[in-house]
Amino acid sequence: MGKQIELPQGALEMLILKSISLGSLHGYGILLRIQQISGERLEILQGSFYTAIYRLERRGWIEGEWGESENNRRAKYYHLTAAGKRQLKEEAAKWSDMADVIAAILQTKPEEI
Amino acid sequence: MSTFATLRCWWRAIAHRSRVSREVEQEFRFHIDVYANDLVRQGMPPAEAERKARIDLGQPDVQGEKYRTAIGLRAWDEVWADLRYGIRGLLRNPSFATVAIVSLALSIGMATAMFSLVHAVLLDVYPYADSDRTVNPIVFDPAHPNDWDWFVLNRAQFRTYRSSPMFEDVLGQANFTVQLQQDDGESQALMVALTANAAPFLKVKPLIGRGLQPSDGDYGDPAPNIAVLGYRFWLKQFGGDASVLGRKLTFSTGILGQKAQPVTIVGVMPERFTLGGPPDFYIPMSQVTFPDVRIIPFAKLKRGVTPQQASTAVDPMVHEFARQDSRMYPKVFETRLQPLIKGFTDRSKFVRSLPILFLAVAMLLLIGCANCSILLLARGTARTHEFALRAAIGASPFRLVRQLLVECLVISLLGSCLGVILSYFLARLPLQLADNLFPTESVMRVDVSVLAFSVVVATAAGMLFGLWPALRFSRPQIAQALQKSSRRTATRSGQASLRRLIGGQITLTFILLAIAGAAVTGFIRLTRTPLGYEPTNTTYAVGISPQADTKNWADRVARNLHMRDAVAAIPGVISVSTTEDFPPGTADDRFPPFQIVGDPANQATTARQSRVDADYFSVLQIPLVSGRIWTEEEGRLGLPLAVVNQAFVRKYSPNRSILGRTIRLTEIVQEAVTYGALRSPAFTGDEVQVVGVTADVVNGGLGRPVLPNIYINIDTLFLGSPALLLRTQGDPSQYTATLRHTLHEAGAKYIYVSTYSLEEMVKRDETWRRERLTAVLFGIFAVAALALALVGLYSVVAYLVAQRTQEFGIRIALGATRGNILWLVLRGNIRVIISGTAIGLILSLLVRRESERWLEGTPQTPALMFGAAALLVLVAIVACLSPAARAAMTQPNDVLHAE
């Protein structure tokens, strides 16, 4: 594993939303997908992971459905709801705006101030 | 959107609790297994992979709880657990729970009943639209503004009144007593005619069928010959049968002109619609063809017009009416328009005592809540050990307080629910005991706002009284409490606050006891007051002949005699009197002046002046004190003779015999002449001669002093229509049909037979009813207060004794006698009882005069108060005795072994 990044507040939720926006996944699948996309640079605490899932479900942004897994076991697959899609769009826009602003500030050279 | 999702999520988690947690666990297990599989695939031995997965992820069986915390149900779960724990605790100690709940239920029940009563008879009594700006006109003498009277209008006056620009609309009502013909003979009924605008004016929907409607017409319009029944009549006469619509009513009366047509029943009005009575049925004004109808006007003020403005505006109009026909108006008067409810509140002494009833109910509520507080305190003291333990294993003060408050909430809610049910029955009591003290529209009904208000107030009061003990116990001295065994001496401060509460309860109970004692003795005194006459088996009837027959005095005398003789001939009628007056009278305070000839002229000599015949005194069995009563012969000749009562003699002729003296009755004679009274040829002046003195008879209403009274030979002049007062063998009500028939045969066109005997009239007297109601209400309050206070006292003593069992065991082991222990327990309590009673006694004595003013007819004598104090102290000590005796019976062996 490479360098690990700790996730800021609210980011985990957004990552979960993003990971299932490509297709429904069960909890472990989401975890793997996030790690895979991030190039194993994110370490997600397994304990807080489900808390985030439950919260998203409570808000009605994701919905779980029971289905068959690869190894023929019952698993709960999550997919985005309409509200979840909207939320993801908003959050993503917010995050990239913020990232731009912060990056711009950090890239400012002393003589530009 | 999000809120809705949250609620759905919570609902699922609460309603399908086990399924949801099973699913959460299943999902989590799957996660662990897949993770472990991956680890195995990466080369870890299966057992170690399983172990690592569990370490990384956690236990699947607590995942359900994590789920509930994540979705925000933790507080709910905790309160729910508190609730279940609380209920289990209450069930484990059912006597405590029962006493607390019953205490609250009793006091809340009475308070809610009081709210409901006031709501039903005062705040929301009329079902009529805009009843707050509907006014009745009254006239009053400016010198006596509280002594007002209603007046009625004739058709022309009504039209004039109706046209006033102050009014949005005016409704006219005319009352008639009619003879209803039925299969089983005739009966008397009250009929009310309403003008055509009744429906839009009152806006009350009929219960079944239709109400009166504008198309039914006013005077002069074609008569549809219909009737709408009043609710009570419908129940009484037709048993509430809905198929009554379309049936016919046949009645006769001299008032409606030619023989009345049968009318068809088209509807029934609801229970609270009792305008004008409660009447038996309503007809449209178009069916009243009698020209000289008397109309009572109800006016709806235009919006923005105050009653004062309108009064000023109609005053000249009413003075003009008085010039046309002055009979109903005082010589000097002003007109006032007053809201409907004023007609009730102004004249009701019960309304005047409402504040003190409310005060009593508030005291009762305090006693009930204090009981709850006492029990919680006592129980909390017993649970000190438990609280310390909970605090020691990590419960915050907040959680302890919450636990106690949840228990308290359970008690309060159960108490208020029971109380509300109880109030449903209690609130009916006043209307059952004294229906004639309230407006006829008063119908006790379940009102959501009253219920909500009471439950909120009651629960809040219960919680408030529970909060205090809860705060006390929320910070237990852990080390101290856990070191001690659970049974030790109670803390001093805990005992002190318990005693203060008990003392307060006893003070309030005493105040209620004193008032109740006064109310009960007042009522008993009233029922024992000699009336001076014999009301049993006595009743009255009125029969009026057509006016044309009685234009002349001799005819009138003959007709009255004929009527009287016909009634006297009925088998079972013992004696009959023709009279314009009979007891117990009403509480008037203005009487016409008179002058004893030969005494210095004095304006202040006034007396009741009643016209009766010679038989009046024998029918009512009023003894003659001196002189004689005029003979029947003298009476028939219309000789100006009179007798007076003893009160008259005491006040106006104490030192000189009144017999043979002459009294000048200028005012009533003048009045009679003005109204075209028929005078006897022998009564040309305005003087009557006193020939006798009779014993005093209650004549100004029950419970009031006997007023000076002059009884004048009725045949001297006729003004109104005299009544026939008769004494019968057995219950007079069995003669009703015969009486009506006889009067009809004797030529009477208008017949009224009293529904009540004179004996019943005494019991329907307003003072009698009010004093009985007050006595019953305060009796109930006092008994409830006493019971609550005693139960509270008993529980406290029992708890404290239970706490100190060990101490008593040691004391006995060390040589204390049983008597010592008994005294040890009783000593402190007796002090509390006596000081509580003493404070109550002092307070009661201080406000005694005030309270007598609020509650008329309740003599609050010091003797009564000391009696009540002795009673209270005695029963309170008795309440302590049984737990104290149990303490004294402590077996030292048992207690010390138990350690």
Could you explain how this protein is built, in words?
The complex is a heterodimer of chains A (113) and B (899). Chain A has 113 residues and is α+β, with helices and mostly antiparallel strands. Chain A has one domain: Arc Repressor Mutant, subunit A (Orthogonal Bundle), CATH 1.10.10.10. Helix content of chain A is 55%, strand content 14%. Chain A is elongated and about 60 Å long. The termini of chain A are far apart. In chain B, a hairpin with a 7-residue loop joins β1 and β2. In chain B, α13 runs parallel beside α17, α13 runs parallel beside α27 and α15 runs antiparallel to α17. In chain B, the strands form 4 sheets. In chain B, strands 14, 15, 16, 17, 18, 20 and 21 form a 7-stranded mixed β-sheet that branches. Chain B has a 6-stranded mixed barrel with strand order 3-4-9-6-8-7. A 4-stranded antiparallel β-sheet of chain B has the order 13-23-12-24. The longest helix of chain B has 38 residues. Chain B has 4 domains: 71 residues, no CATH class; 210 residues, no CATH class; 311 residues, no CATH class; 226 residues, no CATH class. Helices cover 53% and strands 14% of the residues of chain B. Chain B has 899 residues and is of the alpha+beta class. At the A-B interface, α3 and β3 of A face α1, α2 and α4 of B.
* CATH architecture assignment name of chain A: Orthogonal Bundle
- Radius of gyration over C-alpha positions of chain A, nearest whole angstrom: 16 Å
Provide mean pLDDT of chain A, rounded.
83
Shape of chain B: elongated
Summed up, the helix count of chain B is 31
| Terminus-to-terminus distance of chain A | 38 Å
Order of helices and strands of chain A: HEHHEEH
- The overall strand count of chain A is 3
The portion of residues assigned to helices of chain B is 40-55%
Supply the number of structural domains of chain B. Answer: 4
Largest sheet of chain A: 3 strands, antiparallel
- Give the quaternary arrangement of the chains: heterodimer
Specify the helix fraction band of chain A.
40-55%
Structural class of chain A: alpha+beta
Domain count of chain A, please report it.
1
Gap between N and C termini of chain B: 62 Å
Return Rg of chain B in Å.
38 Å
